[in-house]
Amino acid sequence: MRVGSIVNIGPKFSVGVSSAAKIGLTGNMDIGTTLIIPKVEMRFPPKQAGPSSGVATASKAPLKVEVSPQATIGGSFEGHITPRIALGVDMLNGLAKAEIFMETDVKGSIDLGVTLAKSAGANSTASVTGCVGLNSAITARVGAEGGVFPFFDRTTAFDIFTKEFALFKVSVDVRVSILALL
Fold first, then answer.
1. What does the mean pLDDT of the chain come to?
2. Neighbours of 17 (CB within 10 A)
3. Which of 133, 123, 121, 116 is nearest to 171 (CA)?
4. pLDDT at position 86, please?
5. Cis previous bond, 45, omega within 30
6. CA–CA dist 113, 56 (Å, integer)
7. Are 110 and 124 in contact (CB under 8 A)?
8. Who has greater pLDDT, 139 or 127?
9. H-helix segments, the chain
10. Which has the closest alpha carbon to 82: 147, 1, 157?
11. For residues 109 and 75, is the Cβ–Cβ distance under 8 A?
12. CB contact at 8 A, 148 and 102
């Protein structure tokens, strides 16, 4: 119901959609070299004691790179669909408003984790360990919003139902002797 631009009363229906993805890679790598600094002089304050000096040169030792024999890759993807129905009053073109609402958040997520490793020694092995999981959740929420612009704007909400579901999970662990591959 609408009375000019003074009062607007009625229901609203909206659907929100959001998603997020995270990817991570963990591993260790050391890169090293040697610097030779034969003479360094630091003088303070520089105007009274003279300028500071120093020269650094790289040694003749080769660049050293070491990589850890283990790396972990992980990631997740999450999606939300949130339908919302509200009944509200809007007065004076949005200067004052009040609304009660109910919304349902339906979430789906996929989690992935993989570890690659190699062991050294007489019985060298390579291994791949990983897990994939598919999860879902549903949350029903009710609340109220109200405000008089620009003085205050308040929202209160609480969950009336929450349920999580583990739909699917599989893990693998594969180990292979490197000597058997040769």
1. 82
2. 9
3. 133
4. 92
5. yes
6. 44
7. no
8. 139
9. 46-49, 178-181
10. 157
11. no
12. no
